[in-house]
Amino acid sequence: MPCDIFCNVVDNYGDIGVAWRLARQLAGEHEIQVRLWLDDLATLQRIWPATDIDRPIQQISGIEVRRWVEPFPETSPAPLVIEAFGCALPERYLAAMARREPRPLWLNLEYLSAEAWVKGCHGLPSPHPRLPLTAYFYYPGFEPETGGLIRETGLMAQRKAYQADPNQQTLFRQSIRLAPPPSDTLSVSLFAYDHPGVPELLTAWSAGTAKVRCLLPEGVARDGVARFAGGSVVPGQTLRRGNLELCSLPFLDQLAYDRLLWSCDLNLVRGEDSFVRAQWAALPLIWNIYAQPDHAHWPKLQAFLDLYCHGLSPEATAAYRAFTEAWNRGQGLTAAWPALLPHRAELARHARAWADHLADMPDLARKLMHFCKEKL
Ligand code: TRH
Q1: Which residues contact 29 (CB under 8 A, 6 or more apart)?
Q2: Quick one: DSSP state of residue 78?
C-alpha cells in the first residue's frame, strides 16, 4: 500500500528522527511504498548521511524522499496519509484528499507521552472543519491502550548480540576512533539540551569519586560544555579533568547512535526518539525532556517517572527521581550525582526488566498497520 508521510522539522532532530524511523520500518517490514515529504533535507542528512540535500526527489533505503516545498505540487494522495506531529498538510494536498475516492486514511502521529489521558485519546477521530475528511489521532505510548513505541523487528536480539560480543563492540569503537573503555570507569553518553546543569554535572563528574568517561556527540550542549571546558571542544578531542575523561565524538548516524547507547553504563538522552532508543538499550537512562512554556512538560516527565520507577526500591526511586528532576531543572547535580551512584546495579537490572516488559507489547508500526486494517 502506498503511504505519504509529511514531516516539518520544527527544531533539532526528533521530528525527522521519528518520521524517518517509522518510514524505514513501514517500507522495510510492511511492504508499504513510502513517500516522505520533508521540508529540511539537511537535518535528515545529519542522522542519515546518504541523503543528498541538493536532490528534491530521491530514493533512500527504499523510501522516496521529496523536498516539501510551497506552493505544493499537484499530487495524487496515497491511500494512507501520516501527518507527523500536527505539521499541517498543504491545502492543495488536502483538497486532493477530499476529492479522492475512497478517501485516504489520515493519521495524525502525535508526540509520545506517558500521561494517562493518552489512553483515552488514542485513535479518536477529528473531522476537518470544512472538508469531508477525518484525521485520527495516533498516540505513541508505553501502555497497551496506546499506539505503542517504534521498535524494529529483531532490534532486541540485535542489541543483545552486540552487548554479548566484544568483537562487535571493538569494531564499533574503531569506527568512531574510540579507545577501549578503562575497566574501572563508567561510560556515559551525553545528549541533552544546552542547560546550566551541563557544566554542573561535568564538574561533579570531574570532582567525584567514580571515574567517568563521557561520550559526547558533536554539537551537543555546545555552550554548557564550552563553559566547563573553557572553550569549544572538537570531535576527536579528549579532555581530562580530575576523574572525568570527556571524549568528543562526531555526530553519529542513527544506526551508530544506537550502538553508542548499547555500549554505555548510563545514557543521558533527550526529546523523544533518543529517549525511546535508550529504553531499547536496556541500560539505565536519564531523560532530559523538551521544555515547554509554563512548565507543561513537568507533568509529562512525572508521568513517565511514575511508570518507569514501578518496581524499583524506594531508595533507588528517590535517588533516580531526584537526579532526573535536578537534570531537568538544570541545578542540584552536585548532590544528586553521588546520591545516584550507589543504586547503579539496581538501576541496571531494572532497565533490563523495563525493556523486556515494553518489548512484550506490539511495536508502533505493527499497531499502526492493524489500526489501518480496521479503518480501511
Ligand atoms: O533532537 P531532539 O531534541 O528532537 C526533538 C525536537 O526538538 C522536537 O521538536 C521535539 O518536539 C522533540 O525532540 C520532543 O531529540 P530526539 O527526539 O531524541 O531526536 C534526536 C535524533 O537524533 C534521534 O533520532 C537520534 C538521532 N541522533 C543521531 O542519529 N546521532 C547522534 O549522534 C545523536 C546524538 C542523535
Answers
A1: 152, 153, 365
A2: P
DSSP secondary structure string, 304-371? HHHHHTTTS-HHHHHHHHHHHHHHHHT--HHHHHHHHGGGHHHHHHHHHHHHHHHHTSPPHHHHHHHH
Assess whether the region 2-148+362-375 and the region 155-359 belong to the same CATH fold. Answer: yes
> 155-359: what fold?
Rossmann fold (3.40.50)
More confident residue, 183 or 355: 355
Task: Evaluate: CB of 273 within 6 angstroms of ligand 1.
Answer: yes
Instruction: Choose one of 216, 247, 274, 286 to mutate for the ligand 1 pocket test, by most ligand atoms within 8 angstroms of C-beta.
Output: 274
Query: What CATH number does the domain located at 2-148+362-375 have?
Result: 3.40.50
Residue 183: all three cell numbers together: 575497566
Pocket test for ligand 1, best of 273, 286, 301 (most atoms within 8 A of CB): 273
The structure's pTM equals: 0.98
d(CA 47, ligand 1 centre) in Å: 9
Is the bond preceding 338 in cis, omega lying within 30 degrees of 0?
A: no
| 113, amino acid identity | S
Would you state the cell numbers that stand for residue 247, as one nine-digit string?
571524549
Task: Locate the domains of the chain by residue range.
Answer: 2-148+362-375, 155-359
Catalytic residues: 15, 272
- Does the pLDDT value for residue 376 go beyond 90? no
- Rounded CA-CA distance 274/272 in Å is 6
